[in-house]
TrEMBL record:
Monomer. Associates with 30S ribosomal subunit, binds 16S rRNA. This is Small ribosomal subunit biogenesis GTPase RsgA. Keywords: Cytoplasm, GTP-binding, Hydrolase, Metal-binding, Nucleotide-binding, Ribosome biogenesis, RNA-binding, rRNA-binding, Zinc. GO terms for biological process: ribosomal small subunit biogenesis. PANTHER family: SMALL RIBOSOMAL SUBUNIT BIOGENESIS GTPASE RSGA. Its EC number is 3.6.1.-. CDD domains: YjeQ_EngC. GTP binds at T179, K180, A181, D182, G233, Q234, S235, G236, A237, G238, K239, S240, T241. It comes from Streptomyces glebosus. Residues 124-289 form the EngC GTPase domain. It is an enzyme of class 3 (hydrolase). Binds 1 zinc ion per subunit. Gene3D superfamilies: P-loop containing nucleotide triphosphate hydrolases, Probable gtpase engc, domain 3.
Length: 391
């Protein structure tokens, strides 16, 4: 029988097991079931770490009993699963079956590239979201803002979430990591890039690291120690090389970027959770070519907090920040307090997020349609007044 009492010496503690998860597991106690953390998902089966005496072992479990058509509720790397290792064997190489998933605390979710308006959960129960951006190419501030908006949204409707565990701050702490810092040129140039990234991510730690020289790796390792962290970024951002540097051994295969277009190649093909030598665990993910918005309203508000604060000072509460009189946002752009690039990025991500939400929310679709009709009617009215009475 699994020991429910939590202690710092528990075999699963290095993998994130704590008193909160122990309480969530209580309803399953006494049924011959054990908790395990999913470290890898592959075609209807998962690898999970479970307690084995004073140590741990990795088991292979089938997910047929928790199979669902809802992509937000399928087992994901980082989940804590309820495993039946006594009665769940379905083959010579399968150790058991997943009976349930414990409530998730946090999750990183993006919209899929399909036309079905579905979310995809990339990692769960995470404490740090490491946004990797390569300095081998021009720094893409818009991409940083996109990742931050999703990271700061916490979880959205990411399956079986434990509401009390998700903080007002969004649950997981984002960290922006500028990789391949050795390719940034002189120190003055690197300092300038750091300033740009810090201005784009107010209140978020921004670090420059080089897996080649080792610069900054110890600082990042100290930040991530004792927590669950996920590495996110596009192909070629240096995630696998960074993962190897943090793990202290070559566990992830790495490839050079393509010479003909500078694009990265997919090195990591699955999302794998591994233990860090300094404590905590790390989830490496495949490169992301597209990162679509998904229920990111709260994250956008936090990522663009200065725009939201300026909008409160606009004369009209429904100001679009374009040509309306008394627009505090446009005044800030004109005087240089707010960059036009940042405002346009805010608008773009807001529009995209609204489209995604509207596809799944009938009431919001109706509100958008009603607002559009009102604006059309107002436009016709103003045009008629401008033209004057028709004879």
């Amino acid at each position: 029988m699994f020991d429910l009492e939590f202690s710092a010496a528990h075999p699963l503690t290095p993998y994130g097991w704590d008193d909160g998860f122990a309480r969530s597991f209580t309803p399953f106690a006494g049924q011959g079931l054990v908790p395990g953390r999913i470290v890898r998902v592959d075609r209807g089966r998962v690898d999970a770490v479970v307690a084995d005496g004073d140590g741990i072992r990795t088991v292979l479990a089938d997910t047929a009993l928790v199979a669902t058509r809802d992509p937000m509720r399928v087992p994901c790397t980082g989940d804590w699963a309820v495993l039946d290792l006594e009665n769940g064997r379905s083959g010579d190489h399968v150790d058991g079956v997943v009976r349930a998933l414990l409530p998730r605390r946090t999750a990183f979710v993006r919209s899929t590239s399909s036309k079905r308006s579905e979310g995809q959960v990339l990692a769960t129960n995470i404490d740090h979201i490491v946004i990797c951006v390569s300095l081998a190419d021009q720094l893409d501030l818009g991409r940083i803002e996109r990742f931050l908006a999703l990271a700061m949204s916490g979880a959205g409707d990411a399956g079986p979430l434990h509401d009390s565990a998700v903080t007002d701050e969004g649950g997981a702490q984002p960290v922006v990591v500028l990789t391949k810092a050795d390719l940034a040129g002189d120190p003055a140039g690197l300092a300038h890039l750091l300033e740009d990234a810090e201005a784009t991510a107010p209140g978020v730690p921004v670090l420059a690291v080089s897996s080649e020289t080792g610069d900054g790796i110890d600082v990042l390792a100290a930040v991530l120690a004792g927590s669950t962290s996920v590495l996110l970024g596009q192909s070629g951002a240096g995630k696998s090389t960074l993962a190897n540097a943090l793990l202290g051994e070559r566990l992830q295969r790495v490839q050079a970027i393509r010479d003909r277009d500078g694009k990265g190649r997919h090195t990591t093909t699955t999302r794998d959770l591994r233990a860090l030598p300094g404590g905590g665990v790390l989830i490496d993910t495949p490169g992301l070519r597209g990162v679509g918005m998904w229920d990111a309203e709260s994250g956008l508000a936090r990522t663009f907090s200065e725009v939201e604060a300026l909008a409160e000072e606009c004369r009209f509460h429904d100001c679009a920040h374009r040509s309306e009189p008394g627009c505090a946002v446009q005044e800030a752009v004109e005087c240089g307090e707010l960059s036009a690039r940042r405002l346009e990025s805010y608008r773009k991500l807001q529009r995209e997020n609204q489209r995604i939400v509207a596809k799944t929310d009938a009431r919001l679709r109706a509100e958008i349609r009603r607002d559009w009709k009102q604006k059309q009617a107002l436009g016709r009215h103003l045009m008629e007044r401008k033209r004057g009475p028709q004879r």
